[in-house]
Amino acid sequence: MTLIRPFTGLRPKLEHAEDVVAPPYDVLNTDEARARVEGRPYSFLHISKPEIDLPAGTDPFSAAVYVKGAENLQTQLDKGILEQDSQPCYYVYRLIMGEHCQTGLVAVASVPDYDSNRIRKHEFTRPDKEDDRVRQVDALNAQTGPVFLTYRHDGRVDELVKDVCTGSPEYDLTADDGVQHTLWVVKDQALNDELTQRFDAMDCLYIADGHHRSAAASRVAAMRKENNPAHTGEESYNYFLTVIFPDNQMKILDYNRVIKDLNGLDNEAVLQAIANNFNIEQQAVAVTPSKGGEFGMYLDGRWYRLNIKDALIPKADPVKRLDVSLLQNNLIEPLLGIADPRRDKRIDFVGGIRGLQELEKRVNSGEMVVAFSLFATSLDDLMSVADANEVMPPKSTWFEPKLADGLVSHVLD
């Protein structure tokens, strides 16, 4: 088996592509998805969030939802909205958001290499979310949500991808949020072979986003292997759908925190306690941290700039030196009493794409009492954590732009 390989992608016909392509299943709630599909009977949301086609109040994890998703996929196949390529291909996928551009490769990646940690992880997964993806893949007999991977950039891969982009794309679409999605189909066998060889020579790949989808792919592969006495390792279920971008093109935004209460303290007591671990200065405008170890805090209608004292940064520890860890371990847990941010309902998380005004809004509304803005985690830090076989704290990274669902799916044997 190779680390990645081409595959016969399931794609919308050109004339239907704009109607089909949809946001990822996990960035919209059910009500938002229902609104998005008004007048769009072929939106991929009918497949990725099929509860929108069942009565209001339907449990999105009920058996009927997975059945409905499979029915909706079959309907699109029967109507010729989607069709499968006749030969294995790679696909080059470009995302443009404002002035940011990143171009990667759509491929299927080896489940055994994921299991052996050659495809490296940096997050824990939740069993309930894994179970959902396992049931969805099994019902559809396809992987529809790509896992977002990255690698240490390779000059020759850059050249090969750039050459593909000189040709005419198969799709060139602009989504509702203004992000441009462009896809080229790579049918040249020699080019595909060289891409396979270049990636197979790499030490590893890294999961940027999609830990639950990759874990589910591993579980589905194990189930199907156990039920297949003729298993060879070459079956399509031994691979999972990915889009792979070079590290020097990736964009990580800040992932900020909002908290419901001050753990029984008043504002003045909080400010005094924070000064034990941070240098603190009130600011006239919202604080966007400009470096690691610097944080913004919005409390009682005022912004403060916090800089952690240098002696408190464990520089040799790839997890504890992360800004999300520094804030958690030196302020949120000891002062505000939130020891488990993964489960504690007093804390919530706001992706940087929403801006600092979202932090102010949630505090000013009375929903939350205090908000913290963070400096974005770097990709080098992510790779260092993964290389050390460690796990990042929850909500450490927010990647933009997001991959679309429905451009290319991977059908299983």
Fraction in helix: 25-40%
Largest sheet: 9 strands, mixed
Low-pLDDT stretches: none
Q: Beta-sheet strand percentage? A: 15-25%
Number of helical regions: 13
Secondary-structure-derived class: alpha+beta
- Determine the N-to-C terminus distance: 16 Å
How would you sum up this structure, described in words?
It is a single chain. Strand 9 and strand 10 (180-186) form a beta hairpin. The longest helix has 16 residues, at 63-78. This protein has two domains: 4-251 and 401-411, no CATH class; 255-375, 2-Layer Sandwich (Conserved hypothetical protein from pyrococcus furiosus pfu- 392566-001, domain 2), CATH 3.30.1760. It has helices spanning 17-20, 30-36, 45-48, 63-78, 111-115, 127-140, 155-164, 189-200, 211-226, 267-274, 323-336, 356-364, 379-387, and strands at 4-5, 9-12, 82-84, 90-97, 100-110, 119-120, 142-143, 147-151, 171-174, 180-186, 205-209, 239-246, 252-253, 255-259, 278-283, 294-299, 302-308, 347-351, 370-374, 398-399, 409-411. The model has no long low-confidence stretch (mean pLDDT 96). Helix 4 packs parallel to helix 6 and helix 6 crosses helix 9. It contains 13 helices and 21 strands. 31% of the residues lie in helices and 25% in strands. Strands 1, 4, 5, 6, 8, 9, 10, 11 and 12 form a nine-stranded mixed sheet that branches. Strands 15-17-16-19-14-18 form a six-stranded antiparallel sheet, sandwiched between helices. It is globular and about 65 Å long. The chain is of the alpha+beta class.
